[in-house]
């Protein structure tokens, strides 16, 4: 895996190699991309986002991410000036400007804030985009991937759909962050949160699956409808594995034969422990590993890939 | 009410008159205070804050706000370098630098982010402060205060304490923002959210009280323990009014004789309608108005007041 640009000259120079951003109409090195402390995107977390990965110079499922981003914006009454085609062009350009062949590419839409003196209502905000490409980051370390992730179920409960629809990708991570502190205290790598009814939802930025008697299952509610999750379902269909989308009680999850997580920033990530219980031989399970291997095989074959247009990498004006 | 500085020369010059900020160790005009788009304070809403008001050149209950801010930071494992005394000095200085006699003064503590290459865990973040003073803003307009606020109970439910403790002041406003859109669609001024059990919690940045048969009541759970809420309890005690802190079902709230909201940015704000029902004569209720009048009388007398040290207003170095 290469985290550094492969193009040498004339683009990109430092500081663009650390990442490139598009903020409210302008391109800049990511280190210069800053938002006002008074912006409601920060101050009320009134923002939605999406993240698409670039691997070997190609986006994975770019249009699926843009379509979900648009659905999220609509759900929050956020209407930036850019069309989907313009967003697509911006994402190509921030990756091109960074020169990165492996990138984590974020697209945010912030509320802005009402003009001074106006009523303090979000409908009066001026929605705008913030997008950036930075070197690929993985949720799990290589060591974790090799031994299998150690998961735990914390006390904190996932914010329920009645309060915020988890299918609208959002930065309300207080529950997930609390879970990460609980996991750290328990000596685990990651926390998997339950909902108020005791069913499994998701972790901090990833969906989860469990496998019992050869049947794969993933939560039906309380979680993001992940793009990598959809890819896993396609892999299951291809492999002839039953994949159920339904409620998964904590007890079933803890007793599963195998568990894995999945996310844009990490692909398929098998677990080897849950709440201290060792799954099988304390290593990633065989079905999880088969799905993971097939995922990267297909990626290498160009599955759902859109090559980045690196020709957009001339220095931006202004 | 004066929104403009009273000192003329030599301080403050524009652009400080729009507000002054302290960000991560440096003072600057508020318009220059910006946070990185990659900061977890924004990106995971991993941040807590507090807001103290300045009226006629004096803070209201400054130490209570700083004490709550510290409790919130502790709850989130956020440990910035500044002591409480240093925070107090920063707040005095941002107000002095703005020259404002009436100000909304925010103090935030953000997670920052782990250094590049480190494990992506919040415990590795570098917590830092962002504070600013801007001209006083009121939650309610003068017209709303005169006629009484029109409230409504939306479909969206308040994020439950099991997911995020509402006593830790936070920017997880997605539910409150959704409520504001529901209120707008219903022709109301503000939404008051219920919890999952159907009890009243709070609105977007304010606590609520209802009065039935001369007894005042406010929700025991699911809401911020507001500093103005505490002040209302003191006023009730002084006036010989019973004030109960307990669960308030939606039906009781809708049927109350009087309702009012309270917040730093607005004081006591009586309502005249709830879900279309007219309370009494479609005007603020008599007990609410008496409490409101007494609140501002006592404020004028210097109740819980700490005069701002405007002598700190020399131009900052760097």
What is the topology?
Two copies of one chain form a homodimer.
Chain A: E1 20-23, E2 26-29, E3 34-36, H1 40-43, E4 47-55, E5 58-60, H2 62-75, H3 84-98, E6 103-110, E7 128-135, H4 142-147, E8 149-152, H5 174-185, E9 190-191, E10 207-212, E11 215-219, H6 227-239, E12 243-246, H7 250-254, E13 258-263, E14 267-274, E15 277-278, H8 286-300, E16 305-307
Parallel strand pairs in A: 8-9, 8-14, 11-12
Antiparallel strand pairs in A: 1-2, 1-7, 4-5, 4-6, 5-16, 6-7, 10-11, 10-13, 13-14, 14-15
Measured by DSSP, the beta-strand proportion of chain A falls in 15-25%
- Principal-axis shape of chain A: globular
Helical coverage of chain A, percent range: 25-40%
Low-confidence stretches of chain A: none
Greatest interface and its residue counts?
A: A-B, 52 and 52 residues
How many structurally independent domains of chain A?
Answer: 2
Number of helices of chain A: 8
> What is the average of the pLDDT values of chain A?
94
**CATH superfamily placement of the largest domain in chain A:** D-amino Acid Aminotransferase, subunit A, domain 2
From the alpha-carbon coordinates, what is the Rg of chain A to the nearest angstrom? 20 Å
Rounded to the nearest angstrom, the distance between the terminal CA atoms of chain A is 33 Å
- CATH architecture name of the largest domain in chain A: Alpha-Beta Barrel
- Quaternary status of these chains? homodimer
How many strand elements of chain A? 16
| CATH topology value of the largest domain in chain A | D-amino Acid Aminotransferase, Chain A, domain 2
By secondary-structure content and strand pairing, the structural class of chain A works out as alpha+beta
CATH C-level class of the largest domain in chain A is Alpha Beta
* Largest β sheet strand count, sense and barrel closure of chain A: 8 strands, mixed
Order of helices and strands of chain A: EEEHEEHHEEHEHEEEHEHEEEHE
């Amino acid at each position: 895996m290469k985290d550094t640009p492969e193009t040498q000259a004339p683009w990109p120079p430092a500081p663009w190699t650390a990442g490139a951003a598009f903020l409210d109409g302008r391109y800049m090195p990511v280190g210069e991309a800053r938002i006002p402390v008074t912006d409601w995107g920060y101050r009320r977390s009134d923002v939605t986002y999406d993240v698409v990965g670039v691997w070997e110079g190609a986006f994975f499922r770019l249009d699926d991410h843009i379509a979900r981003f648009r659905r999220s914006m609509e759900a929050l009454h956020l209407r930036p000036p850019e069309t989907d085609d313009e967003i697509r062009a911006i994402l190509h350009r921030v990756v091109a400007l960074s020169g990165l062949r492996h990138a984590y590419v974020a697209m945010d839409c912030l509320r802005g804030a009402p003009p001074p003196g106006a009523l303090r209502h979000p409908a009066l905000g001026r929605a705008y985009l913030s997008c950036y490409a930075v070197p690929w980051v993985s949720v799990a370390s290589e060591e974790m991937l090799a031994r299998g992730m150690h998961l735990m179920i914390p006390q904190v409960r996932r914010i329920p759909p009645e309060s915020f629809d988890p299918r609208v990708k959002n930065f309300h991570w207080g529950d997930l962050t609390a879970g990460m502190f609980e996991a750290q205290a328990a000596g685990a790598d990651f926390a998997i949160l339950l909902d108020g009814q005791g069913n499994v939802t998701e972790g901090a930025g990833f969906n989860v699956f469990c496998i019992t008697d050869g049947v794969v299952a993933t939560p039906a509610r309380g979680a993001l409808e992940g793009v990598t999750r959809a890819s896993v379902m396609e892999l299951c269909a291809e492999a002839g594995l039953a994949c159920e989308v339904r409620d998964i009680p904590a007890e079933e999850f803890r007793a599963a034969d195998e568990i894995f997580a999945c996310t844009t920033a990490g692909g398929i990530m098998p677990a080897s422990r849950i709440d201290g219980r060792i799954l099988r031989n304390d290593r990633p399970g065989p079905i999880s590993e088969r799905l993971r291997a097939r995922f990267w095989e297909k990626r290498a074959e160009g599955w759902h890939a859109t090559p980045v247009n690196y020709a957009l990498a001339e220095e931006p004006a202004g």
